[in-house]
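Hello,

I think I submitted the magnesium ion job twice by accident. Can you confirm which output corresponds to this input? Input:
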Amino acid sequence: MLAKDCKRKVILTGDRPTGKLHLGHFVGSLQRRVELQNSGQFDEINILVADDQALTDNWDNPKKVRDNIIEVTLDYLSAGIDPDKSFICIQSGIPALHALTFYYMNLVTTQRLSRNPTVKSEMLMRGFNGSESEDDNVAGLPAGFFTYPVSQTADITAFKATTVPAGEDQMPMIEQAREIAHRFNTIYKCDVLVEPDILIPENAAQRRLPGIDGKAKMSKSLGNGIFLSDDAATVKKKVMSMYTDPTHINVADPGHVEGNMVFTYLDAFLRDDSQFADYLPDYKNLEEMKEHYQRGGLGDMKCKKFLLKVMEDLLQPIRENRAKWETNINDVYDILKAGTDHAVQVTNQTLHECRDAMRINYFDDKDAMVKSWESWLNESHTKN
Ligand code: ATP
Ligand code: MG
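Support: Only one job matched these inputs. Its output is below.
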């Protein structure tokens, strides 16, 4: 058996508490987490509410971050994260992550960080153009934001995660995490850190779900999302306003399915063909429906009504679960506290091993340290 096969299988994944979770989070990562959790194939699952990372572009609004911790946690629990099988923890309550970030900063260059395509596009989106600004860094690039992939590396490696289920935008982050872990192990001649693997969705439409306007990735920051906690009326309004095919003006016109959000969402969310039998028996499967749309003769309204049924099959149970959890914030608090306490233990152990490997574990063993300093002084005196 390969050494790698003997490793504990550990998941670390998470979200920034910058808003409620949306369908992009669900297909990109959350539904996979629930599947993996229920597969019983993992030794440990940790889900991190990354509040420190959220502060890197919300430093002036910590209340927003604080309020969204409960929103994101309720979304997890409602979507099927089971506190008996997975830990949910809060990043800022885990001091070892900060210490590891500080050491890892030395193992990556600013040039390497500048090449990260996800950070580049996020900088553009936020107007962090890297210029000097007197105006409270409005246009400048905050060092914390620029280096967040390093802190994310600390998050992943501190838990010795082998697997990170995430959307496609996270690929450069995991690549960077692997590089830093490899560099640490090489420089300090150890095998303390584990190089993680990303697990992106097999379904192409789920890897980077576009917003309902069809323009960019569905994102909390862009206001183009359908949220897991949206009520049925809001979901209906959003589905009905979805971007389709501007060339498909009359029902009889041939239509395009590529770039048409209704079909992209059907690709991402259709559970199985039984949903056709239940809600749109004119077709046996999505292929048949797409062919008709492309040929002409199938109207957008009919397609949207079907998509709405598919969405509600998914969202209604999540909404019901949320209503229950919302009446029980006391328990949610305890879940977060227990997950964070566990995370503190695990990550302190990794930090300890890292400091050991770096030989900066001064206070572990007084006798050994005193001997080491004495022999150094003897050596240097002899030399002089
Ligand atoms: P923000 O705008 O604050 O960055 P976000 O919507 O990009 O928020 P994150 O918290 O950065 O969400 O992402 C959390 C996880 O959800 C990551 O694994 C990311 O890949 C995944 N994810 C987010 N948006 C999408 C999307 N539209 N499609 C697929 N996966 C997504
Ligand atoms: Mg993001």
